[in-house]
Amino acid sequence: MTQVHFTLNNEEVQNIIEHSVKDDAAKNILTTVFNQLMENQRTEYIQADNYEQSESRQSQRNGYYERTFTTRVGTLDLKVPRTRDGKFSPTIFERYQRNEKALLASMLEMYISGVSTRKVSNIVEELCGKSVSKSFVSSLTEQLDPVVNDWQSRSLTETNYPYLMTDVLYLKVRENHRVLSKSCHIAIGITNDGDREVIGFMIQNEESVHTWSTFFEYLKQRGLQGTELIISDAHKGLVSAIRQSFTNASWQRCQVHFLRNILTTVPKKNSKPFREAVKAIFKFTDIDRAREAKNRLIADFIDQSGYIKACDILDNGFEDAFQYTVIGSIHNRLKSTNLLERLNQEVRRREKIIRIFPNRASANRLIGSLLMDTHEEWLGSTRKYIKV
Predict the structure, then answer these.
(1) Are 359 and 109 in contact (CB under 8 A)?
(2) What is the residue-averaged pLDDT of the chain?
(3) pLDDT at position 134, please?
(4) Which residue of 86, 99, 165, 371 shows the fewest CB atoms closer than 10 Å?
């Protein structure tokens, strides 16, 4: 993926902030940033600055043409740079535009279906004007759906994913005039090189053994292989499906969820020593030392009525919560689903704008576009999620 590096003209942006009315500031700033990005991308394509004599020069500058670009803060009037050879085309907006089109298409579907709120109506008018045609919605959908569907069904055979992180989030979708809750199953794969990738998602009717098994089968049919550890919360249907679908892999119970499960059962008053002792256990990366600390804590508190349930939960779930320490190299980031929780928050932030999707296809389109953007951003990063 193309990496573009440039220096933003901070003085120009600050001047925009100071002299723009509140509603126009975001549009003006984004216009300035996009214009600077395109200008820098043209310079990289030409391989020469203005008026620079260079043997490596690929072409010459040839002015600009005006183009409107629709974003969630409004329509931007951009100056797109051209080159003499006519081959230069800015690509910096491709992921951003796909994301915005997905959001816009979903809002327009709501608008046309007659289920939109006043807020949605206002947003549509701000982005597209007062006249919204069904043909415009169809054109957006036609551009996005094949891209999302191809990515959603792409082959995974070229890469091994020894670590799999999975979770579900719930959406509201309108179906036969009813508003129903749907489950969106999401999986992140971590490669042997320590890179993270969004490897799949699927919208289903619920979270159960059946739906999780269906989701895992979908991943395996696309070529998921080499999985040694699956990190997730302790939902019974999910755990059962993991046991059935990945017979040679270990299950790592998310320590963050596990700790929360334990502490919600203890008394609120005078429980500080117990709480601190439990938290200290999860700081160990040596399972033997953690087990010794766990046994000491249980011996100290098991006879106290307010801590019996907490001790049972800790004892029964301990081994599953420390599987990341016994699979080879120890990676602290594999002990919880924090990475996926953060991804879910980003999806939720954009999904809240819609609130109720007009249909399942609309939900698949928007969430797929958001996950694709994150996936490509991760692939383009030079930082590893875990060090190998």
Answers:
(1) yes
(2) 83
(3) 56
(4) 86
DSSP 245-278: H-TTSEEEE-HHHHHHHHHTTS-SSS-HHHHHHH
Given a contact cutoff of 8 angstroms between Cβ atoms, the answer to whether 96 and 80 are in contact is no
pLDDT tens figures, 290-341? 999 999 999 999 999 899 999 999 999 999 999 999 987 788 999 999 999 9
Pairing of the two strands 61-71 and 229-232: unpaired
Spatial contact of 217 and 204, defined as CB atoms under 8 Å apart: no
Helix (H, G, I), strand (E, B) or coil at 224: coil
Tokens at residue 332, please?
């602290």
In this structure, what token pair is assigned to residue 170?
Answer: 């719930």
Closest CA to 34 of 79, 2, 72: 79
Question: What phi and psi, each to the nearest 5 degrees, are found at residue 296?
Answer: -65, -45
Model pLDDT for residues 3-52, shown as the tens digit of each residue: 444 444 445 444 544 444 444 555 776 777 778 778 888 888 888 888 78
Taking CA atoms, 358 is separated from 172, 282, 294, 355, 373, in Å, by 9, 44, 50, 10, 23
pLDDT at 101: 65
Q: Name which of 32, 31, 43, 56 is nearest 5 in CA terms.
A: 43
pTM value surpassing 0.90 = no
> What does the alpha-carbon distance between residue 20 and residue 26 come to, in Å, rounded to a whole number?
9
Which run of H or of E encompasses 299? helix 287-301
Q: Which residue has the tokens 């033997």?
A: 288
- Dig out the tokens for 85 from the structure: 């050879």
Tokens of 129: 């004007």
Q: Which residues, 6+ apart, have CB-to-CB distance to 62 below 8 Å?
A: 82, 83, 84, 86
Nearby residues of 136 by Cβ (< 8 Å), 6 or more positions away:
108, 128
Of all residues in the chain, the percent with pLDDT exceeding 70 is 78
Sheet holding 229-232, edge to edge: 196-204, 178-190, 163-175, 229-232, 250-253
